[in-house]
TrEMBL record:
PANTHER family: ALPHA-D-RIBOSE 1-METHYLPHOSPHONATE 5-TRIPHOSPHATE DIPHOSPHATASE
Pfam families: Amidohydro_1
SUPFAM superfamilies documented for this protein: Composite domain of metallo-dependent hydrolases (SSF51338), Metallo-dependent hydrolases (SSF51556)
Provenance organism: Acidovorax bellezanensis
Domain (Amidohydrolase-related) ranges: 55-404
Name of this protein: Amidohydrolase family protein
Amino acid sequence: MSTKYLISGGRLLNPHQDSLGPVVDILVADGLIQEVSESRIRCPDAEKIDATGLTVMPGLIDAHVHIFMNEMNIAALAGVPQTYAAAKSTKVIREMLHRGFTTVRDVAGGDYGMRDAEQAGYIESPRLFVGGKAISQTGGHGDFRGRAEADFGCACCTGLALFSTLADGVPEVIKATREQLRQGADHIKIMLSGGVASPNDPLDSIQYRNDEMQACVEEAERWGSYVCAHAYSDVAIRRAVVNGIRTIEHGNFVSAETAAMMAERGTFVVPTPIVHEANHRLGAASGKSPSSMEKNERVRVAGINALSVYKAAGVQIGFGTDLSMHTQSFQTEALRLTASVLGNADVIRSATVVNAKILRQEKKLGEIVPGAHADLLIVDGDPYADISVLVEADSKIIAGMKAGAFFKRQSSL
């Protein structure tokens, strides 16, 4: 018999609005939101939760994480067994959950095994949407070999091999896409430009030809899935949009013209300014090489400016962090950093209803409505007035629920 909860007295945070809503009763049963009402709900067999003076809001969604990428330098995963990487990831995702992120989308590395373990209840974790291995061209952002190394690595041996797979030319891209879909990927990630962490590709490099991108998109769409793309430069972003990529990851150097095209075509962007800010603050302690830190500074400055460009153009902006284990403590700080440009209401929308759209989980995640998953937070304060309510998760999140079960609940509630 499932546990029923009746949460009463809290003000509802509806992400579609710009301020808190009325005091409501919320009935939770069978892992779902059953009823939301301004009138009293009567359910004698439900456990009563008094949220008077508190805010009840949907759980947060982080649309750009890497659950296995938890070494100070990603290339160091080459010396880490996959079993160790998986064990280490359980700590990382448990802490994400306790920060209030009840759902995350892994965009390189996370696989069906971890997702199925979460769904079976073997690990304490946010809901996982996974893309399997990212697809990269030789020498691209997913190719972490040193220049003297010929082989990419054994898929049965290292944590690095979880992150990406190399594919060159249309037939290889088709096969790589089909292989990730066969293995249960919820989406496909493709690398279309240089990056900060990859050692050998120039940041401004343009990766994959049009026909290769089109092949990837066609295969994903025929499966009922979609493609997200790592892209920094404006040229890479524009090529992705033209070729049917659904979400742009990072997107730091976007122009106003490309942003307008994205808005017109309904392309999402998931900026990740916090990862570059974290590297900047940590300096050498970030584990990045001097060349990576040089690239990091360029994208850090551009990334904050890009938020204004996307907002002005009307692009649908998701929320992502892209952090590793030693920088995960910055995850909620990302809300404050993004809100400094977008405003509190917009960043709350990005981390709830916009990310739910990206996941194709509208009305199921990101809002508290009948029929949605009972993923919710009870917080002390008004996040619209002060985003620090969510940044200071340890003390301000009084309770957190995922699938109708509490993962956090202070004794006062």
